[in-house]
UniProtKB/TrEMBL annotation:
Homodimer. The keyword Secreted does not apply. It comes from Pseudomonas aestuarii. Keywords: Cytoplasm, Disulfide bond, FAD, Flavoprotein, NAD, Oxidoreductase, Redox-active center. The keyword Flavoprotein applies. InterPro entries: Class-I_Pyr_Nuc-Dis_Oxidored, FAD/NAD-bd_sf, FAD/NAD-binding_dom, FAD/NAD-linked_Rdtase_dimer_sf, Lipoamide_DH, Pyr_nuc-diS_OxRdtase, Pyr_nucl-diS_OxRdtase_dimer, Pyr_OxRdtase_I_AS. Its cofactor is FAD. Residues 353-462 form the Pyridine nucleotide-disulphide oxidoreductase dimerisation domain. The active site is a redox-active disulfide bond. Transmembrane segments: none annotated. This is Dihydrolipoyl dehydrogenase. It catalyses: N(6)-[(R)-dihydrolipoyl]-L-lysyl-[protein] + NAD(+) = N(6)-[(R)-lipoyl]-L-lysyl-[protein] + NADH + H(+).
Amino acid sequence: MTQKFDVVVIGAGPGGYVAAIKAAQLGLKTACIEKYQDNEGKIALGGTCLNVGCIPSKALLDSSWKYHEAKVGFSIHGIEAKGVSIDVPAMVARKSNIVKNLTGGVSTLFKANGVTLLEGHGKLLAGKQVEVTALDGTTQVVQAENVIIASGSKPIDIPPAPVNYDTIVDSTGALEFQSVPKTLGVIGAGVIGLELGSVWARLGADVTVIEAQDKFLPAADEQIAKEALKTFTKQGLKIRLGARLTASEVKKKQVTVSFTDAEGEQQMTFDKLIVAVGRRPVTTDLLATDSGVDLDERGFIYVDDQCATSVPGVYAVGDVVRGAMLAHKASEEGVMVAERIAGHKAQMNYDLIPSVIYTHPEIAWVGKTEQQLKGEGVAVNVGTFPFAASGRAMAANDTGGMVKVIADAATDRVLGVHVIGPSAAELVQQGAIGMEFGTSAEDLGMMVFSHPTLSEALHEAALAVNGHAIHVVNRKKR
C-alpha cells in the first residue's frame, strides 16, 4: 500500500530538514528523503553544510586560528608559549566529532517533531508521486499532497584539474588532510577557496590562490575587497588574479599546474591542489521526464519568488534554485514554503540576506555595495569607522579592518552595511535587523551602544554617514 503524506521533502540539508521540521510543527504529515552516507556508511542528515561545508570548515578555521594565535599572537599579551605544535589528525577528528553531534541532533529533531525519514534517493514522478530508491536498490513510491525539492549542490569539476581525491581535491577533500602540505595551490579566490586556503596557511603551508577573474571578491564592496586583498597578502597568501588554469599534471605525489596570466604562460608545482571554483545544483536523476518541473538555462529548478515550481504543489528551495548558495537562505526558504503550504501568506526578503567569509579578519555584508548603488544612479552618503580606533578591538589585539555604512543621500535610509574585521558577521547581522525595519543612519546613531564593544564601530560608522562621528575625525563634505 502506497504511503501518503501531506509533505514530502527531497533532501535533508539546511533547506530540506528545516522545511520538514517546520511542516511537521504546522500539523502536516511529513516525510524527508535523504541518501547521504557518512564514513561509517550510515545515513547522515544536514546536507553539505553540516557534513562537508559550513560546520566542518568553521571547526578547522577556529582550530587553525587558535594555533596561529598561540604561535605568533600570545607574546604581545605577555604570554610565553614555547614549542607550540599542531596535531592535524586530532584537529580533523575534533571536526568530525562536531559534525557527528550536529547530524545526530537533526535525527533527534526529526523524531521529536514526528518527521518520517525515508532513507534513499528521491525522484519526483508525475502527479506528485516520489520514488524512493533505498541503498540496497529496492524502490517504493510515496504519494504527496505537496513536494519540496531541496537536493542542494555539489562542487564544480573542471577539466584542467580533475579531482583524484589524493593530490587534487575538492572542498570536501580539503577538510580531510592528515598533515600540512608544504605547498598548496587553491583554484578559485571565492569564499570556499579563501577559507580553506586560510586554514592551511595558518598551519604552515605555502599557499598560492589562482583566480581567473581580474577583480578580487567582485561581489563585495570594492573598498572592503581592497582591504581584504591587502590583509591576506600581508598574511602570506599569494593571490594571483587574472590567472586562467589550462592544465595540471600529477607526478611523484605532486601536481604541476599550468595557467596563463598577464605575464604569459606560467607553471607552479604543489604538494596538494584544492579546486574551489564554485558549486552547481544537484539534479541528476531527480526529475522524471513527465514530472512537469522545469530547469532554467543554468540547470537550476525554475521557481517564482515564493519557491513554487511550474507544477502546483511542488516547490524547490536552497542551492538547487536561483539566488545565493547560502545555508541560511535555504533554511528561510524552507520555512516560507512550509508556511505557505499550511495556508499562511509567508514572504521572504531577498534583499537582506547577509553574506559572510569566515577568514580572519571576517568579511561580511548585507544590502547593496557602493558600486552597485552608484551604477543605479542612487546618491549616497558613506560612513566608515576603523577598528584601529576601537578600544575593544585594541584590547583584543584585533584592530584590522573597518565598518562601512551606506545610506541614501535623500532619505538617510541605510542601504548597505559592510564589515571586514573582528566579529564582522555579528555586526552585519545588527545592521540587517535595523534595515529590515527601514532604519536610517540617524536611527542607528541615536541608539545607545554598550562600551567598550566592537558594536560601537557600527554606531560610529552610522554617525559618520552624516559627519557626526565622535571617535574618529569626520571626512569633510566636498
